[in-house]
Structure formats: C-alpha cells, structure tokens
Amino acid sequence: MSMPAESTTGLIDEFGVDLTQPLFPQINALGDDYEPWVHQGITVTTLKELKELQSGPWAGSVRIFGQDWLEPGTHIKWEHVLGLWLPVALISLVLSWTWQQLAPLQLLGWALYGFVIWTLVEYGLHRVVFHNIPHNTFGRKFHFLAHGIHHLDPWDGTRLVFPIPAAIGMAIIVFALLSLLMTLPHTLAFFGGLILGYLFYDMSHYWSHHHKTRNRWLVFLKKYHLAHHHRDHDSRFGVSQPFWDLVFRTGDLHP
Asked: What is this structure's pTM?
C-alpha cells in the first residue's frame, strides 16, 4: 500500500519545520528546540490550512515518513484496536475458566489484579518513557514516534491508539514472561484483565479527545487529560484514572 504523491506549497512553523513535508527527517535540525516544538502543538487553524494544501487519504494529518510504505502504519483506527483485543481478552478469561478450570472467584480476582497492574503500567510508561526526552537525535526520534506526534497533533483521531503490529509483539512477550511467573490458569486470567485495562486506557484516551458526554466521571477524565496537554505536560500522567498521580503527587482532582 502506498500513498499518492502530494503537491504542497509549504507551511513553515516558527521553529522552521515545514508541516507539509515528512516530519521525521526534520527532527535532526531542531536540536534542543525539539521539546518546546513538540509540546507546543499544532493549532486547529493550522491543520485546516494544511488540509487545503494536501491531497490523499489523510489530508489534514501531518506526514511522519517520506516512504509511502511506512506512512499507512502510523494511522490506526480505534475500532480495529477494540475489534482485535476485546476478543483476545475474553477468550483468555474463558479459557482460564473452562479449559484450566480456575474457580470463578479466583478468575475474577486475578483478572482484577491484571487490570489494576495495567493502570500502574499505564502511569509508568506515560511518565517515565513517554515524557523522558533524551538529548540526542535517536532519543528525540524515538520519543516522537512513541508519544511526541500525539502532543504535536492531539487532534488526529488516527494517531491516538497504539499501533497494532507493535502491540501484538509486546503482548506475546508479556504473555511469555507471565507464564514463567505464574501457572497457566492464573496467567490466562491475569493477562485477560491486563488487556481489558489496556483497552479501557486506549478507549478513554480516544474519547477524551473526540467525544462528548454528560457523564460526570467521563467529563472529569476528559478535563484531566486535556489539562495534561494544554496546561502542564509534566503532570497528570494517568489517562484512564488519576489514582497513581495522587499516590505519586503528580496530579490532583482539580483539573
């Protein structure tokens, strides 16, 4: 699959980055300006201007790579993530109960354990990995692919959820490691809960940027996450809940 060629006239931001051209090769020239650039974000007005200058299936999205074969993999729909991982989670839980004959209460407990552990993983990844920007070109490029593109353009609904191929690889590794630490029935139950926690995180993240509701809890999560983007990107690292921010004093209940 490849993208059709685009014809653009250029849209240069204040850091000298041409938003109509692939961004990944331009990171080298930013140097220490990378961090303020990526966290400043692109305005909705600029994105509208960009869309008028572009053509192709993702007009209005900044382009990351110059290679046509790489670019489609950077656009992931939330429906595909839900459609893949929800059956995986449910099958894992059902196998733990029917095949491995784990008692229902134990199944519930281990699944809940996996769900809670995911919330800690979510917090740790976001705070320690996604918001640690090394002062070298390789580190900046890794950060850009892992999380920077989302802070640069949080409005892009196809770049909010984790790419499926990478997620599958990580899931296989995690399941293998868990199987070394636990019995198979406990691994299946824990893994099912872990995946449900991941889905809750990814869907919460998508909703925070692209949906409206009157539910007070979901409204709070939306405000909480948008404060992370637009007020202080070094706080409020929890996306699906604020619990670990409260524990480690990196957030509060007043977004």
From this structure: 0.90
